[in-house]
């Protein structure tokens, strides 16, 4: 027989202990954060402004600038997540 801790036995007697047989529906709160992250990683709204500002807007230069921008953005997000903002 499995022995349960005393505090669980006391909670059962007081009516404070209840077993949930079915999982609750997941909360939709994650969508607010999800939308922010997706929007922050979308570079295409700013792409034309960045391309216009380059002196020589060739395809390799634009790609290089975008890769640096995404790399820096990923690093910042990773550091914020690791530090615990």
Give a description of the structure.
- The chain has a domain of 59 residues.
- 66% of the residues lie in helices and 0% in strands.
- The model has no long low-confidence stretch (mean pLDDT 76).
- By secondary structure, the chain is mainly alpha-helical.
The residue-averaged pLDDT reads 76
Radius of gyration computed on alpha carbons: 26 Å
How many alpha or pi helices?
4
Spatial shape? rod-shaped
Order of helices and strands: HHHH
The poorly predicted ranges are none
Distance between the termini: 46 Å
Query: What percentage of residues falls in helices of 4 or more residues?
Result: 55-70%
Q: What is the beta-strand fraction?
A: under 5%
Q: How many extended strands?
A: 0
Which structural category fits the helices and strands?
A: mainly alpha
Strand count, sense and barrel status of the largest sheet are: none
Entry keywords:
rod-shaped, 85 residues, 66% helix, mainly alpha
Summarize the entry for a quick read:
The model has no long low-confidence stretch (mean pLDDT about 75). The protein is mainly alpha-helical. The chain has a domain of about 60 residues.
Question: How are the SSEs ordered, and which strands pair?
Answer:
Layout: H1 6-14, H2 30-41, H3 44-53, H4 59-83
């Amino acid at each position: 027989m499995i022995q349960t801790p005393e505090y669980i036995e006391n909670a059962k007697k007081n009516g404070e202990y209840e077993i949930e047989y079915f999982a609750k529906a997941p909360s939709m709160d994650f969508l607010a954060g999800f939308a922010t992250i997706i929007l922050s990683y979308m570079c295409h709204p700013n792409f034309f402004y960045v391309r216009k500002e380059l002196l020589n807007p060739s395809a390799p230069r634009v790609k290089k600038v975008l890769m640096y921008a995404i790399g820096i953005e990923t690093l910042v997000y990773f550091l914020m997540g690791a530090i615990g903002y």
